[in-house]
């Protein structure tokens, strides 16, 4: 099972590996983690990144550092997907006027003033 | 409320990430399939080597048929060319409402052409031929490497691959302005193939070239080559648009492409070439080569007379390659020419090979045909004998070395690793590293290189520490929304400024759901590839299925598929799109493969192994058909069709009976007096998506 998970992580990593040299830009890590099926919050993502050594300068993450951390995340089933009813609830909580949608500005406001 | 917002953000970011992953996977798929197709060239080369070395023709007919495949397109002397591709005798009817050109060309002609093409009008064949003759005359005066200076026009605009995408060219002119005395342009090759308006692109570029010869510069790309055009669509486009005069037009294009300059140098500081460089690239040699001798870079010129013997060995050793002077694997060479007249009895293979070699020797006096020159110059002197002649300063490099120089310039790609190695993916040129670039720039006191040849998502990309710039001007190259196109402007400071675009209004307005359709076509292409390798896949799956249960784990599925297709794709990420139903993480592979097969139209009555061969080799088959179809009519006789099949299937080790072939032929309507329209035939074998 571990081998299979590792293969998945490597595959996802390599899609973002522009120069085929086993490194990706640190800004893409979030994308990679999420496309592997995880739903971390921004805070959780930052914590995760802190665990991974980053190559300076340039802010590149090497596959060797990323693999063990990510594998653990998947094995422990961290950052599970949010159930649909919960997310719906969240939308309804913010949609004061009950119009069925919220605007980007609203979201930003709540995130920054929360 | 904050919590709620965070939740939504979480969800949203995951959604965006998924889309991004999808997009990159799609890109990967298109790219790897494109490069795999270029690998087909190598396969084709193997096929021809097989024919020469191993195949024993069983009849005179077969032998004649094979030798016809090797005879190159006829080459013409200057006078012959003017006579054959004459345009003056072509009458333009009064009913023709398109633009009429007169020479010398004026800016009004260019505007008229632009308008006409926007209205989807077609330029009369007479004018095309006339234009080509004039273009050729002009190009002949140009050196191999054009020199441009930014002190005449303040800015130079450099464009990359256009690949017949007229809309992109229109957009560039609209946004950047038409070429003029104050607006210089360099177009860096690959004007044709793949896109459907290669002709129009060329007509416009050549027109501007003639009107503003000081300001407009064209470089040759690897697609300005008739062997490549046979495979990638330009030949087809010309024949479809010009049924009567198409052949003449194609012949003229051949003789114009070979005169295109190889590169452009700006202010002696920036070199612009289509592909790249290699560690042996020599600008001095490049400037002195007779570039028109290389009508197609995909064919090696044969040396003659005293160098006969190594030549023969080279022919034989070709399938193993690595025998040429430069020590690199050469691009496919199959330009051996034969005279079908007196062949011996073809009783055994040795006889046949010997006959081949003999015939080659006998052809020395008609070596002009062998070498495919368009002029009747005394090319007969080999370089070794030239040295003894006069100017001892005269460079004595070989034709082979010259050919490699051009091949490298037109076909190479940069790579992140240091060094220089053969470009096995494309079958020509090499991969060059940052150290090669550095050395080259230093040697010739250059600041950086501009090249094209590779599609880039943003239309341009720097590499090698910003010393190599790739510029690609065909937007939406793989599919709508796949990539932007770009052009770059350089002023006297030689600092690049980029303009990006996506010349398809629809692309801007794609809704979310419509954007999902883009990956769909990539997956369709993938499914087709999978289908084409059904037998190999089954064997691979069986290897993982020890209990013969008919099922394998998804993990093994991924490994097996990669081992067969070798596309380097992230199969585990792609699995959800390719495999619909699984049970407990196991896949029933037989039924999965059957589902893939179901997607094609009713071809069930055709032997399945035969079908596979067709799908797998469709582009090679198409190229072979086009080579056989020398008058470019799109038709080959039933017999030729049959013979092609027999030869090809014996090479591919597939059993094919006469009945099998007849079934094949019957599957398409052909009522053209025993002739087969191979376009129709090939179209019939495209996978069609099943309607939901």
TrEMBL record, chain A:
Annotated signal sequence range: none
Keyword entries, A-Z: Repeat
InterPro entries: EF-hand-dom_pair, EF_hand_dom
Example of a GO MF term: calcium ion binding
EF-hand domain sequence ranges: 4-39, 82-114
GO CC terms of this entry: sperm principal piece
Highest taxon in the source lineage: Eukaryota
Protein name: DRC8 protein
Species of origin: Drymodes brunneopygia
Designated gene of the protein: Efcab2
UniProtKB/TrEMBL annotation, chain B:
Record organism: Drymodes brunneopygia
EC number: 3.1.3.16
Keywords linked to the UniProt accession: Calcium, Hydrolase, Manganese, Metal-binding, Repeat
Residue ranges of domain EF-hand in the record: 616-651, 656-691
Originating gene: Ppef2
This protein's record includes keyword Calcium: yes
CC cofactor: Mn(2+)
Gene Ontology terms: biological process: detection of stimulus involved in sensory perception; negative regulation of MAPK cascade
Entry superkingdom: Eukaryota
Signal peptide region: none
Keyword Hydrolase: yes
CDD domains listed in its UniProt record: EFh (cd00051), MPP_RdgC (cd07420)
The protein's name in its UniProt record: Serine/threonine-protein phosphatase
InterPro entries per record: Calcineurin-like_PHP, EF-hand-dom_pair, EF_Hand_1_Ca_BS, EF_hand_dom, Metallo-depent_PP-like, PPP_dom, PPP_phosphatase, Ser/Thr-Pase_EF-hand_contain
GO molecular function list: calcium ion binding; Hsp90 protein binding; iron ion binding; manganese ion binding; protein serine/threonine phosphatase activity
SMART domains associated with the record: EFh, PP2Ac
Catalytic activities: O-phospho-L-seryl-[protein] + H2O = L-seryl-[protein] + phosphate; O-phospho-L-threonyl-[protein] + H2O = L-threonyl-[protein] + phosphate
Region annotation (Disordered) ranges: 306-329
Similarity section: Belongs to the PPP phosphatase family.
């Amino acid at each position: 099972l571990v081998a299979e998970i590792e293969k998945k992580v490597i595959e996802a990593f390599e899609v973002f590996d522009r120069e085929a040299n086993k490194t990706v830009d640190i800004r893409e890590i979030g994308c990679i983690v999420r496309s592997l099926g995880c739903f971390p919050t921004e805070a959780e993502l930052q914590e995760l990144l802190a665990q991974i050594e980053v190559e300076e300068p340039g802010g590149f993450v090497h596959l060797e550092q990323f693999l063990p951390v990510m594998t653990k995340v998947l094995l422990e089933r961290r950052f599970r997907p949010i159930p649909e009813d919960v997310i719906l609830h969240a939308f309804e909580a913010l949609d004061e006027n009950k119009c069925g949608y919220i605007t980007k500005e609203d979201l930003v406001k709540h995130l920054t003033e929360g | 409320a904050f919590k709620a917002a965070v939740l939504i953000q979480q969800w949203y970011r995951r959604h965006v990430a998924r889309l991004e992953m999808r997009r990159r996977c799609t890109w990967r798929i298109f790219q790897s399939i494109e490069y795999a197709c270029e690998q087909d060239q190598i396969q084709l080369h193997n096929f021809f080597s097989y024919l020469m070395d191993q195949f024993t023709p069983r009849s005179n007919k077969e032998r004649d048929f094979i030798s016809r495949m090797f005879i190159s397109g006829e080459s013409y002397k200057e006078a012959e060319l003017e006579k054959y591709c004459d345009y003056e005798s072509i009458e333009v009817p009064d009913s023709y409402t398109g633009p009429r050109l007169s020479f010398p060309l004026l800016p009004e002609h260019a505007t008229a052409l632009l308008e006409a093409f926007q209205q989807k009008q077609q330029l009369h064949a007479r004018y095309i031929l006339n234009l080509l003759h004039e273009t050729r005359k002009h190009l002949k005066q140009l050196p191999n490497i054009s020199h441009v200076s930014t002190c005449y026009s303040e800015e130079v605009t450099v464009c990359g691959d256009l690949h017949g995408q007229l809309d992109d060219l229109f957009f560039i002119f609209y946004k950047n302005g038409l070429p003029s005395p104050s607006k210089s342009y360099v177009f860096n090759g690959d004007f044709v193939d793949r896109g459907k308006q290669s002709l129009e692109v060329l007509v416009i570029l050549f027109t501007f070239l003639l009107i503003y010869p000081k300001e407009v510069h064209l470089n040759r790309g690897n697609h300005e080559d008739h062997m490549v055009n046979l495979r990638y669509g330009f030949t087809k486009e010309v024949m479809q648009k010009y049924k009567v005069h198409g052949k003449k037009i194609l012949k003229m294009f051949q003789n114009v492409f070979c005169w295109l300059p190889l590169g452009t140098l700006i202010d002696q500081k920036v070199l612009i070439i289509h592909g790249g460089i290699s560690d042996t690239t020599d600008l001095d040699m490049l400037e002195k080569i007779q570039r028109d001798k290389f009508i197609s870079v995909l064919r090696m010129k044969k040396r003659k007379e005293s160098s006969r013997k190594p030549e023969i060995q080279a022919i034989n050793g070709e399938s193993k390659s690595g025998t040429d002077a430069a020590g690199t694997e050469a691009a496919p060479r199959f330009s051996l020419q034969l005279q079908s007249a007196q062949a011996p009895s073809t009783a055994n293979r040795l006889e046949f090979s010997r006959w081949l070699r003999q015939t080659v020797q006998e052809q020395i006096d008609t070596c002009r045909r062998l070498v495919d020159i368009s002029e009747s110059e005394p090319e007969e002197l080999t370089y070794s004998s030239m040295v003894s002649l006069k100017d001892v300063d005269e460079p004595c490099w070989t034709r082979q070395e010259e050919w490699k120089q051009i091949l490298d310039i037109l076909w190479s790609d940069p790579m992140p690793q240091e060094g220089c190695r053969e470009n096995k993916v494309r079958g020509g040129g090499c991969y060059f590293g940052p150290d090669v670039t550095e050395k080259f720039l230093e040697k010739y006191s250059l600041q950086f290189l501009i090249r094209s040849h590779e599609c880039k998502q943003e239309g341009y990309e720097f590499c090698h520490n910003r010393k190599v710039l790739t510029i690609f001007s065909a937007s939406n190259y793989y599919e709508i929304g796949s990539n932007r196109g770009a052009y770059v402007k350089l002023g006297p400071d030689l600092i690049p400024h980029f303009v990006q675009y996506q010349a398809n209004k629809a692309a801007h307005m794609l809704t979310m759901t419509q954007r999902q359709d883009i990956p769909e076509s990539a997956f369709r292409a993938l499914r087709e590839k999978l289908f084409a390798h059904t037998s190999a896949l089954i064997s691979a799956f069986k290897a993982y299925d020890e209990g013969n249960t008919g099922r394998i784990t998804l993990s093994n599925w991924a490994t097996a598929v990669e081992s067969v297709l070798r596309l380097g794709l992230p199969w585990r990420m792609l699995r959800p799109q390719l495999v619909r139903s699984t049970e407990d993480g196991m896949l029933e592979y037989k039924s999965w493969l059957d589902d893939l097969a179901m997607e094609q139209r009713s071809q069930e009555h055709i032997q399945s192994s035969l079908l596979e061969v067709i799908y797998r080799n469709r582009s090679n088959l198409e190229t072979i058909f086009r080579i056989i179809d020398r008058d470019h009519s799109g038709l080959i006789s039933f017999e030729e069709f049959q013979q092609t099949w027999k030869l090809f299937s014996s090479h591919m080790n597939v059993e094919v009976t006469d009945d099998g072939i007849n079934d094949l032929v019957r599957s398409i309507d052909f009522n053209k007096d025993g002739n087969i329209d191979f376009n129709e035939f090939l179209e019939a074998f495209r996978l069609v998506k099943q309607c939901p």
